[in-house]
Amino acid sequence: MPQKSLAFLVLGAVSAAHPARAQELTSEDRESEAVGTAGANEPAVAGPTPEAEAAVAPSEGWQTYVSGYFRAPLAIGISPRRSPDNPAAPAEMQLSYGPTRTVDANYYSFAYTRLQEQDWAEFFVHARKEHVHAAIGGMGYWLQSTGFRNNDAAWTPGLAYLTLDTDFELAGLKPNIALTGGAFWPKFGAFPKYDTYTLGQFRQLGEQLKLTVPLGPEVTLTLVQGFGSARDGSSNILAPPPYQATVGLVLLHYEHVQLSYGEHLDIALHYNGEWTRDPNLYQSTVVGRSFSNASEAYVTTIGAEATVRAPFLGSLWVSPSYIRVKNGWALGEAGTEVMHSLSGEGLATNYLAWSGSLTDSTGSGKLLNIGFLYENTLSGIQGKPRGSASPEVTLNVFGLFTDVTLDLPEGSVISQDHIGQFKYGADVQVQPLDWLSVMLRWDEVNYNLGDHPGYVFSAITPRVTFWTHFLSGESLYIQYSRYRYGGNMTLAGRWPWGTPLVAGSDIVQGGTYAGHKPDMDVVRLQASVSF
Questions:
Q1: Of 77, 78, 167, 309, which has the fewest beta carbons less than 10 angstroms from its beta carbon?
Q2: Which domains are seen in the chain, by residue range?
Protein backbone atom coordinates (compact mmCIF):
# COMPACT_ATOMS: atom_id res chain seq x y z
CA MET A 1 0.00 0.00 0.00
CA PRO A 2 1.37 3.48 -0.79
CA GLN A 3 2.75 5.29 2.25
CA LYS A 4 0.30 8.14 1.71
CA SER A 5 -2.57 5.87 2.60
CA LEU A 6 -1.21 5.43 6.12
CA ALA A 7 0.36 8.83 6.72
CA PHE A 8 -2.43 9.97 8.99
CA LEU A 9 -1.92 6.88 11.16
CA VAL A 10 1.76 7.50 11.67
CA LEU A 11 1.15 10.98 13.04
CA GLY A 12 -0.46 9.57 16.15
CA ALA A 13 1.46 6.32 16.36
CA VAL A 14 4.87 7.90 16.73
CA SER A 15 3.76 10.79 18.89
CA ALA A 16 6.18 11.75 21.58
CA ALA A 17 6.38 14.95 23.56
CA HIS A 18 3.06 16.76 23.22
CA PRO A 19 1.77 17.20 26.78
CA ALA A 20 -1.65 16.18 27.92
CA ARG A 21 -3.99 18.66 29.52
CA ALA A 22 -6.73 17.08 31.61
CA GLN A 23 -5.38 13.59 32.19
CA GLU A 24 -6.52 12.73 35.68
CA LEU A 25 -9.78 12.12 37.46
CA THR A 26 -8.98 14.99 39.79
CA SER A 27 -10.80 17.14 42.28
CA GLU A 28 -11.81 19.52 39.49
CA ASP A 29 -13.31 16.64 37.55
CA ARG A 30 -15.44 15.67 40.52
CA GLU A 31 -16.39 19.29 41.07
CA SER A 32 -17.49 20.01 37.51
CA GLU A 33 -18.83 16.74 36.14
CA ALA A 34 -22.44 16.86 35.10
CA VAL A 35 -23.61 13.61 36.60
CA GLY A 36 -22.05 10.67 38.43
CA THR A 37 -20.65 8.82 35.45
CA ALA A 38 -21.55 5.15 35.19
CA GLY A 39 -18.32 3.22 35.31
CA ALA A 40 -15.94 5.82 36.72
CA ASN A 41 -14.27 3.19 38.87
CA GLU A 42 -11.29 5.16 40.16
CA PRO A 43 -11.52 6.17 43.82
CA ALA A 44 -12.99 9.59 44.32
CA VAL A 45 -10.68 12.36 45.45
CA ALA A 46 -11.28 15.49 47.47
CA GLY A 47 -14.22 17.71 46.64
CA PRO A 48 -18.00 17.41 46.43
CA THR A 49 -20.12 17.50 43.30
CA PRO A 50 -21.03 20.89 41.79
CA GLU A 51 -24.54 20.91 43.16
CA ALA A 52 -23.33 19.59 46.53
CA GLU A 53 -26.29 17.25 46.17
CA ALA A 54 -28.16 19.55 48.57
CA ALA A 55 -26.12 18.08 51.41
CA VAL A 56 -24.33 21.18 52.69
CA ALA A 57 -25.21 21.99 56.26
CA PRO A 58 -27.20 25.23 56.61
CA SER A 59 -25.02 28.22 57.40
CA GLU A 60 -25.57 31.92 57.70
CA GLY A 61 -22.35 32.69 55.81
CA TRP A 62 -20.10 31.28 53.17
CA GLN A 63 -17.91 28.26 53.73
CA THR A 64 -14.63 28.48 51.81
CA TYR A 65 -11.99 25.85 51.14
CA VAL A 66 -9.28 24.92 48.66
CA SER A 67 -8.90 21.73 46.66
CA GLY A 68 -6.27 20.68 44.18
CA TYR A 69 -4.17 18.05 42.53
CA PHE A 70 -0.72 17.68 41.06
CA ARG A 71 1.25 15.01 39.24
CA ALA A 72 5.02 15.41 38.86
CA PRO A 73 6.67 12.60 36.88
CA LEU A 74 10.30 11.89 36.04
CA ALA A 75 10.48 9.62 32.97
CA ILE A 76 13.75 8.35 31.47
CA GLY A 77 13.93 6.48 28.18
CA ILE A 78 16.78 3.99 27.95
CA SER A 79 18.20 2.64 24.72
CA PRO A 80 21.56 1.73 23.12
CA ARG A 81 21.98 3.87 19.97
CA ARG A 82 24.73 5.11 17.72
CA SER A 83 25.86 8.68 18.31
CA PRO A 84 23.99 11.24 16.16
CA ASP A 85 27.31 12.89 15.20
CA ASN A 86 29.10 9.60 14.50
CA PRO A 87 26.69 7.06 13.01
CA ALA A 88 29.58 4.66 12.30
CA ALA A 89 30.50 4.34 15.98
CA PRO A 90 29.28 1.41 18.08
CA ALA A 91 25.96 1.84 19.87
CA GLU A 92 26.19 3.18 23.39
CA MET A 93 23.63 3.59 26.13
CA GLN A 94 21.54 6.78 25.91
CA LEU A 95 19.18 8.31 28.48
CA SER A 96 16.51 10.59 27.04
CA TYR A 97 13.42 12.49 28.17
CA GLY A 98 11.00 9.56 28.23
CA PRO A 99 8.03 10.97 26.26
CA THR A 100 10.30 12.07 23.40
CA ARG A 101 11.00 8.55 22.16
CA THR A 102 7.95 6.54 23.15
CA VAL A 103 4.79 5.99 21.12
CA ASP A 104 2.13 6.26 23.82
CA ALA A 105 2.84 9.58 25.57
CA ASN A 106 0.62 11.82 23.42
CA TYR A 107 -2.72 12.35 25.15
CA TYR A 108 -4.32 13.25 21.80
CA SER A 109 -3.62 9.92 20.09
CA PHE A 110 -5.38 6.57 20.05
CA ALA A 111 -1.98 5.08 20.98
CA TYR A 112 -2.12 6.75 24.42
CA THR A 113 -2.01 4.17 27.23
CA ARG A 114 -1.61 6.49 30.25
CA LEU A 115 1.65 4.72 31.18
CA GLN A 116 3.61 7.87 30.32
CA GLU A 117 1.23 10.63 31.40
CA GLN A 118 2.95 13.97 31.90
CA ASP A 119 2.99 16.97 34.26
CA TRP A 120 -0.28 18.36 35.54
CA ALA A 121 -1.20 20.70 38.41
CA GLU A 122 -4.41 22.47 39.42
CA PHE A 123 -5.98 24.29 42.34
CA PHE A 124 -9.49 25.50 43.11
CA VAL A 125 -10.96 27.95 45.60
CA HIS A 126 -14.53 27.14 46.58
CA ALA A 127 -17.21 29.17 48.31
CA ARG A 128 -20.48 27.54 49.27
CA LYS A 129 -23.54 27.85 51.35
CA GLU A 130 -26.82 25.97 51.28
CA HIS A 131 -27.91 25.47 47.65
CA VAL A 132 -25.03 27.63 46.30
CA HIS A 133 -21.57 26.60 45.14
CA ALA A 134 -19.04 28.84 43.38
CA ALA A 135 -15.53 27.86 42.32
CA ILE A 136 -12.60 29.35 40.45
CA GLY A 137 -9.42 27.52 39.58
CA GLY A 138 -6.21 27.48 37.61
CA MET A 139 -4.25 24.69 35.99
CA GLY A 140 -1.22 23.95 33.87
CA TYR A 141 0.32 20.94 32.17
CA TRP A 142 4.01 21.83 32.39
CA LEU A 143 5.91 22.51 35.63
CA GLN A 144 7.94 25.53 34.55
CA SER A 145 10.66 25.68 37.21
CA THR A 146 12.32 22.45 36.06
CA GLY A 147 13.92 24.06 33.02
CA PHE A 148 12.34 24.53 29.63
CA ARG A 149 9.47 26.99 29.91
CA ASN A 150 6.34 26.44 27.87
CA ASN A 151 4.17 29.55 27.88
CA ASP A 152 1.22 27.70 26.37
CA ALA A 153 1.10 25.40 29.39
CA ALA A 154 -0.25 27.91 31.91
CA TRP A 155 -4.05 27.91 32.07
CA THR A 156 -4.73 30.48 34.77
CA PRO A 157 -7.56 31.00 35.42
CA GLY A 158 -8.94 27.85 33.86
CA LEU A 159 -12.46 27.35 35.18
CA ALA A 160 -14.98 29.52 36.99
CA TYR A 161 -18.57 28.44 37.59
CA LEU A 162 -21.59 28.88 39.82
CA THR A 163 -24.20 26.26 40.71
CA LEU A 164 -27.58 27.01 42.26
CA ASP A 165 -29.81 24.13 43.32
CA THR A 166 -33.09 23.64 45.11
CA ASP A 167 -35.30 20.83 46.39
CA PHE A 168 -39.04 20.77 45.82
CA GLU A 169 -41.96 18.36 46.05
CA LEU A 170 -43.97 17.22 43.02
CA ALA A 171 -46.62 14.50 42.94
CA GLY A 172 -45.21 12.91 46.06
CA LEU A 173 -41.65 12.96 44.71
CA LYS A 174 -38.82 15.15 46.01
CA PRO A 175 -36.60 16.09 43.05
CA ASN A 176 -33.53 18.30 43.07
CA ILE A 177 -32.89 20.77 40.26
CA ALA A 178 -29.48 22.38 39.74
CA LEU A 179 -28.42 25.12 37.32
CA THR A 180 -24.73 25.63 36.57
CA GLY A 181 -23.29 28.52 34.60
CA GLY A 182 -19.82 29.71 33.70
CA ALA A 183 -16.70 27.95 32.40
CA PHE A 184 -16.70 24.27 33.39
CA TRP A 185 -16.07 20.80 31.94
CA PRO A 186 -19.04 18.42 32.16
CA LYS A 187 -18.17 14.93 30.99
CA PHE A 188 -19.79 11.61 30.11
CA GLY A 189 -18.41 8.19 29.26
CA ALA A 190 -15.25 8.71 31.32
CA PHE A 191 -12.75 5.88 30.77
CA PRO A 192 -10.14 6.13 33.56
CA LYS A 193 -7.75 3.44 32.31
CA TYR A 194 -7.02 5.39 29.10
CA ASP A 195 -8.16 8.77 30.46
CA THR A 196 -10.47 9.57 27.60
CA TYR A 197 -14.22 9.81 26.91
CA THR A 198 -16.42 7.62 24.75
CA LEU A 199 -19.25 10.18 24.82
CA GLY A 200 -17.59 13.52 25.46
CA GLN A 201 -16.13 16.13 27.73
CA PHE A 202 -17.22 19.70 26.96
CA ARG A 203 -14.82 22.60 27.49
CA GLN A 204 -17.49 25.21 27.51
CA LEU A 205 -18.70 28.61 28.55
CA GLY A 206 -22.40 28.15 29.03
CA GLU A 207 -25.09 26.50 31.10
CA GLN A 208 -26.16 23.13 32.38
CA LEU A 209 -29.50 22.11 33.85
CA LYS A 210 -29.65 18.92 35.90
CA LEU A 211 -32.79 17.34 37.31
CA THR A 212 -32.47 14.47 39.78
CA VAL A 213 -35.69 12.59 40.56
CA PRO A 214 -35.84 9.83 43.23
CA LEU A 215 -38.46 7.40 41.91
CA GLY A 216 -38.19 4.99 44.83
CA PRO A 217 -35.98 3.92 47.71
CA GLU A 218 -33.22 2.78 45.29
CA VAL A 219 -34.28 4.13 41.90
CA THR A 220 -33.10 7.54 40.65
CA LEU A 221 -33.66 9.24 37.32
CA THR A 222 -31.22 11.98 36.27
CA LEU A 223 -31.77 14.31 33.30
CA VAL A 224 -29.02 16.66 32.07
CA GLN A 225 -29.20 19.36 29.40
CA GLY A 226 -26.36 21.69 28.46
CA PHE A 227 -25.53 24.39 25.92
CA GLY A 228 -22.41 26.46 25.48
CA SER A 229 -19.54 27.60 23.36
CA ALA A 230 -15.83 27.10 23.04
CA ARG A 231 -13.88 30.15 21.87
CA ASP A 232 -11.53 29.30 19.06
CA GLY A 233 -9.07 31.25 16.96
CA SER A 234 -6.77 28.53 15.69
CA SER A 235 -8.44 28.10 12.31
CA ASN A 236 -7.40 31.57 11.16
CA ILE A 237 -4.22 29.97 9.85
CA LEU A 238 -6.34 28.68 6.96
CA ALA A 239 -6.95 32.24 5.77
CA PRO A 240 -4.47 33.78 3.33
CA PRO A 241 -1.97 36.36 4.70
CA PRO A 242 -2.28 38.68 6.46
CA TYR A 243 -3.66 36.32 9.11
CA GLN A 244 -6.40 37.83 11.25
CA ALA A 245 -6.32 37.22 15.00
CA THR A 246 -10.07 36.88 15.42
CA VAL A 247 -11.96 34.75 17.91
CA GLY A 248 -15.06 32.81 16.97
CA LEU A 249 -17.67 30.61 18.59
CA VAL A 250 -17.76 26.85 18.31
CA LEU A 251 -21.23 25.99 19.61
CA LEU A 252 -22.14 22.76 21.40
CA HIS A 253 -25.01 21.11 23.20
CA TYR A 254 -25.59 17.82 25.05
CA GLU A 255 -28.47 15.84 26.51
CA HIS A 256 -28.04 12.92 28.90
CA VAL A 257 -30.49 10.69 30.75
CA GLN A 258 -29.42 8.17 33.39
CA LEU A 259 -31.35 5.63 35.44
CA SER A 260 -29.72 4.25 38.60
CA TYR A 261 -30.77 1.34 40.74
CA GLY A 262 -28.96 1.62 44.06
CA GLU A 263 -25.35 0.48 43.80
CA HIS A 264 -26.24 -2.28 41.34
CA LEU A 265 -26.98 -0.60 38.02
CA ASP A 266 -26.40 2.66 36.15
CA ILE A 267 -27.61 2.93 32.56
CA ALA A 268 -27.56 6.09 30.45
CA LEU A 269 -28.30 7.39 26.97
CA HIS A 270 -26.44 10.36 25.51
CA TYR A 271 -26.52 12.80 22.58
CA ASN A 272 -24.33 15.80 21.76
CA GLY A 273 -23.49 18.05 18.83
CA GLU A 274 -20.91 20.67 17.83
CA TRP A 275 -20.96 23.21 14.99
CA THR A 276 -20.10 26.82 14.06
CA ARG A 277 -21.86 29.73 12.40
CA ASP A 278 -19.29 32.44 13.15
CA PRO A 279 -17.74 34.03 10.02
CA ASN A 280 -14.93 35.52 12.09
CA LEU A 281 -13.25 32.11 12.03
CA TYR A 282 -13.32 31.73 8.24
CA GLN A 283 -12.98 34.91 6.21
CA SER A 284 -11.11 33.09 3.46
CA THR A 285 -12.53 32.96 -0.07
CA VAL A 286 -10.35 29.98 -1.00
CA VAL A 287 -12.45 27.22 -2.55
CA GLY A 288 -13.24 24.62 0.10
CA ARG A 289 -12.08 26.81 2.98
CA SER A 290 -14.75 29.50 3.04
CA PHE A 291 -17.33 30.31 5.68
CA SER A 292 -19.92 28.45 3.59
CA ASN A 293 -17.84 25.28 3.97
CA ALA A 294 -17.32 25.90 7.68
CA SER A 295 -21.04 26.44 8.27
CA GLU A 296 -21.64 22.89 7.00
CA ALA A 297 -19.24 21.42 9.58
CA TYR A 298 -20.52 19.40 12.54
CA VAL A 299 -19.75 16.64 15.01
CA THR A 300 -22.65 14.52 16.28
CA THR A 301 -22.30 11.83 18.95
CA ILE A 302 -24.91 9.27 19.97
CA GLY A 303 -24.10 6.71 22.63
CA ALA A 304 -24.77 5.01 25.91
CA GLU A 305 -22.99 3.73 28.97
CA ALA A 306 -23.90 1.17 31.58
CA THR A 307 -22.34 -0.15 34.76
CA VAL A 308 -23.47 -3.38 36.36
CA ARG A 309 -22.25 -4.28 39.85
CA ALA A 310 -22.99 -7.70 41.29
CA PRO A 311 -22.00 -9.21 44.64
CA PHE A 312 -18.99 -11.51 44.28
CA LEU A 313 -18.80 -10.88 40.51
CA GLY A 314 -17.42 -7.34 40.50
CA SER A 315 -18.38 -4.48 38.18
CA LEU A 316 -18.56 -4.16 34.39
CA TRP A 317 -18.72 -0.84 32.52
CA VAL A 318 -19.56 -0.78 28.81
CA SER A 319 -19.96 2.31 26.62
CA PRO A 320 -20.70 2.24 22.87
CA SER A 321 -20.82 5.43 20.80
CA TYR A 322 -21.30 6.55 17.21
CA ILE A 323 -19.64 9.77 16.01
CA ARG A 324 -20.42 11.49 12.70
CA VAL A 325 -18.08 14.24 11.46
CA LYS A 326 -18.34 16.57 8.49
CA ASN A 327 -15.64 19.10 7.57
CA GLY A 328 -13.92 18.48 10.88
CA TRP A 329 -11.07 20.77 9.82
CA ALA A 330 -13.39 23.76 10.42
CA LEU A 331 -14.12 23.09 14.10
CA GLY A 332 -10.89 24.34 15.62
CA GLU A 333 -9.01 23.17 18.68
CA ALA A 334 -11.72 23.50 21.31
CA GLY A 335 -15.16 22.14 22.10
CA THR A 336 -16.01 18.46 22.39
CA GLU A 337 -13.21 16.21 23.65
CA VAL A 338 -13.93 12.61 22.72
CA MET A 339 -11.91 9.48 21.80
CA HIS A 340 -8.53 11.10 22.54
CA SER A 341 -9.42 14.11 20.39
CA LEU A 342 -9.80 17.63 21.75
CA SER A 343 -12.28 18.82 19.10
CA GLY A 344 -13.77 18.21 15.68
CA GLU A 345 -10.43 19.14 14.16
CA GLY A 346 -8.78 16.61 16.48
CA LEU A 347 -11.10 13.85 15.26
CA ALA A 348 -10.33 14.86 11.68
CA THR A 349 -6.57 14.67 12.31
CA ASN A 350 -6.50 11.51 14.43
CA TYR A 351 -8.88 9.34 12.41
CA LEU A 352 -10.05 11.00 9.19
CA ALA A 353 -6.74 11.72 7.40
CA TRP A 354 -6.95 15.51 7.65
CA SER A 355 -3.41 16.93 7.29
CA GLY A 356 -3.99 20.32 5.66
CA SER A 357 -4.84 19.24 2.12
CA LEU A 358 -8.55 19.47 1.33
CA THR A 359 -7.98 17.63 -1.93
CA ASP A 360 -7.02 14.53 0.05
CA SER A 361 -9.42 14.79 3.01
CA THR A 362 -11.94 17.23 4.47
CA GLY A 363 -11.89 15.51 7.85
CA SER A 364 -15.25 13.83 7.24
CA GLY A 365 -16.40 10.35 8.20
CA LYS A 366 -17.76 8.29 11.05
CA LEU A 367 -16.49 6.35 14.07
CA LEU A 368 -18.16 3.39 15.76
CA ASN A 369 -16.61 2.90 19.21
CA ILE A 370 -16.93 0.70 22.25
CA GLY A 371 -15.08 0.79 25.55
CA PHE A 372 -15.22 -1.72 28.39
CA LEU A 373 -13.78 -2.06 31.89
CA TYR A 374 -14.20 -4.97 34.28
CA GLU A 375 -13.04 -4.74 37.89
CA ASN A 376 -13.12 -7.09 40.85
CA THR A 377 -11.33 -7.40 44.17
CA LEU A 378 -10.46 -10.24 46.48
CA SER A 379 -12.62 -8.70 49.18
CA GLY A 380 -15.47 -8.41 46.65
CA ILE A 381 -15.19 -12.10 45.78
CA GLN A 382 -15.48 -12.82 49.50
CA GLY A 383 -18.57 -10.63 49.74
CA LYS A 384 -16.84 -8.00 51.88
CA PRO A 385 -16.27 -4.23 51.48
CA ARG A 386 -13.26 -3.14 49.44
CA GLY A 387 -10.07 -3.21 51.50
CA SER A 388 -11.33 -5.89 53.89
CA ALA A 389 -9.05 -8.61 52.50
CA SER A 390 -5.41 -8.68 53.55
CA PRO A 391 -3.66 -8.48 51.24
CA GLU A 392 -6.19 -6.77 48.99
CA VAL A 393 -6.00 -7.83 45.34
CA THR A 394 -7.62 -5.84 42.51
CA LEU A 395 -8.04 -7.04 38.93
CA ASN A 396 -8.92 -4.83 35.94
CA VAL A 397 -9.52 -5.92 32.34
CA PHE A 398 -10.14 -3.13 29.82
CA GLY A 399 -10.22 -2.23 26.15
CA LEU A 400 -11.21 0.39 23.57
CA PHE A 401 -12.14 -0.30 19.94
CA THR A 402 -12.94 2.06 17.08
CA ASP A 403 -14.06 1.32 13.54
CA VAL A 404 -13.50 4.32 11.27
CA THR A 405 -14.94 5.02 7.81
CA LEU A 406 -13.53 8.01 5.90
CA ASP A 407 -15.55 10.11 3.46
CA LEU A 408 -12.78 11.09 1.03
CA PRO A 409 -13.18 13.65 -1.77
CA GLU A 410 -12.94 12.54 -5.38
CA GLY A 411 -9.35 12.45 -6.55
CA SER A 412 -7.88 11.85 -3.08
CA VAL A 413 -4.56 10.00 -3.18
CA ILE A 414 -5.40 8.31 0.13
CA SER A 415 -6.28 4.75 -0.76
CA GLN A 416 -7.38 3.50 2.66
CA ASP A 417 -10.90 4.66 3.48
CA HIS A 418 -11.51 2.31 6.39
CA ILE A 419 -9.52 1.49 9.51
CA GLY A 420 -10.04 -0.47 12.71
CA GLN A 421 -8.07 0.21 15.89
CA PHE A 422 -8.11 -1.77 19.11
CA LYS A 423 -6.22 -1.45 22.37
CA TYR A 424 -6.72 -3.60 25.42
CA GLY A 425 -4.98 -4.74 28.57
CA ALA A 426 -5.19 -5.93 32.14
CA ASP A 427 -3.60 -5.14 35.47
CA VAL A 428 -3.39 -6.78 38.88
CA GLN A 429 -2.63 -4.77 42.00
CA VAL A 430 -1.72 -6.36 45.32
CA GLN A 431 -1.74 -4.25 48.49
CA PRO A 432 -0.05 -6.29 51.26
CA LEU A 433 0.29 -3.24 53.54
CA ASP A 434 -1.71 -0.05 54.01
CA TRP A 435 1.27 1.97 52.72
CA LEU A 436 2.52 -0.33 49.95
CA SER A 437 1.06 -1.79 46.74
CA VAL A 438 2.55 -3.66 43.80
CA MET A 439 0.96 -3.60 40.34
CA LEU A 440 1.63 -5.49 37.11
CA ARG A 441 0.01 -4.17 33.91
CA TRP A 442 -0.01 -5.41 30.33
CA ASP A 443 -1.07 -3.31 27.31
CA GLU A 444 -1.52 -4.18 23.64
CA VAL A 445 -2.28 -1.55 20.97
CA ASN A 446 -3.11 -2.45 17.37
CA TYR A 447 -3.13 0.76 15.40
CA ASN A 448 -4.36 -0.67 12.12
CA LEU A 449 -6.38 -3.89 12.17
CA GLY A 450 -6.81 -5.98 9.07
CA ASP A 451 -4.26 -6.46 6.33
CA HIS A 452 -1.84 -3.74 7.48
CA PRO A 453 0.58 -5.50 9.85
CA GLY A 454 3.31 -3.80 11.83
CA TYR A 455 1.25 -0.96 13.35
CA VAL A 456 1.22 -2.61 16.76
CA PHE A 457 3.03 -2.38 20.07
CA SER A 458 2.75 -3.82 23.56
CA ALA A 459 4.07 -3.01 27.01
CA ILE A 460 4.54 -4.86 30.28
CA THR A 461 4.71 -2.56 33.31
CA PRO A 462 5.47 -3.38 36.95
CA ARG A 463 4.91 -0.58 39.49
CA VAL A 464 5.58 -0.16 43.22
CA THR A 465 3.50 2.52 44.99
CA PHE A 466 3.95 4.03 48.44
CA TRP A 467 0.90 5.53 50.18
CA THR A 468 0.24 7.05 53.58
CA HIS A 469 -2.64 4.58 53.98
CA PHE A 470 -4.84 2.33 51.85
CA LEU A 471 -5.38 3.92 48.40
CA SER A 472 -5.04 7.43 49.80
CA GLY A 473 -4.97 10.63 47.74
CA GLU A 474 -1.19 10.97 47.97
CA SER A 475 1.37 8.55 46.58
CA LEU A 476 4.89 8.05 45.25
CA TYR A 477 5.56 5.30 42.75
CA ILE A 478 8.38 3.88 40.71
CA GLN A 479 7.59 2.02 37.51
CA TYR A 480 9.37 0.29 34.65
CA SER A 481 7.84 -0.28 31.20
CA ARG A 482 9.24 -2.70 28.65
CA TYR A 483 7.93 -2.17 25.10
CA ARG A 484 7.78 -4.34 22.00
CA TYR A 485 7.12 -2.72 18.61
CA GLY A 486 5.84 -3.84 15.23
CA GLY A 487 7.95 -3.03 12.19
CA ASN A 488 6.00 0.09 11.25
CA MET A 489 6.12 1.70 14.69
CA THR A 490 9.05 4.05 14.15
CA LEU A 491 10.05 7.56 15.18
CA ALA A 492 9.24 10.38 12.78
CA GLY A 493 11.62 13.24 12.03
CA ARG A 494 12.01 17.00 11.67
CA TRP A 495 13.86 19.30 9.37
CA PRO A 496 16.85 20.99 11.10
CA TRP A 497 14.81 24.18 11.58
CA GLY A 498 12.04 22.30 13.34
CA THR A 499 9.46 21.94 10.56
CA PRO A 500 7.87 18.48 10.62
CA LEU A 501 8.71 16.15 7.77
CA VAL A 502 5.04 15.14 7.65
CA ALA A 503 2.38 17.83 7.90
CA GLY A 504 0.79 17.84 11.31
CA SER A 505 3.45 15.79 13.05
CA ASP A 506 4.74 18.52 15.35
CA ILE A 507 4.11 16.16 18.22
CA VAL A 508 7.01 13.89 17.26
CA GLN A 509 10.72 14.41 17.72
CA GLY A 510 12.58 11.61 15.99
CA GLY A 511 15.36 13.92 14.84
CA THR A 512 18.36 12.04 13.53
CA TYR A 513 16.71 8.83 14.72
CA ALA A 514 13.74 9.20 12.37
CA GLY A 515 12.75 5.76 11.12
CA HIS A 516 14.37 4.05 14.10
CA LYS A 517 12.61 1.98 16.73
CA PRO A 518 11.33 3.94 19.78
CA ASP A 519 12.86 3.34 23.21
CA MET A 520 12.08 -0.11 24.53
CA ASP A 521 12.70 0.69 28.21
CA VAL A 522 11.28 3.58 30.25
CA VAL A 523 11.80 4.12 33.99
CA ARG A 524 9.44 6.45 35.79
CA LEU A 525 9.23 8.05 39.23
CA GLN A 526 6.09 10.03 40.05
CA ALA A 527 4.70 11.99 42.97
CA SER A 528 1.00 12.88 43.04
CA VAL A 529 -1.47 14.21 45.56
CA SER A 530 -5.11 15.27 45.62
CA PHE A 531 -6.55 17.35 48.42
A1: 167
A2: 3-530 (2.40.170.10)
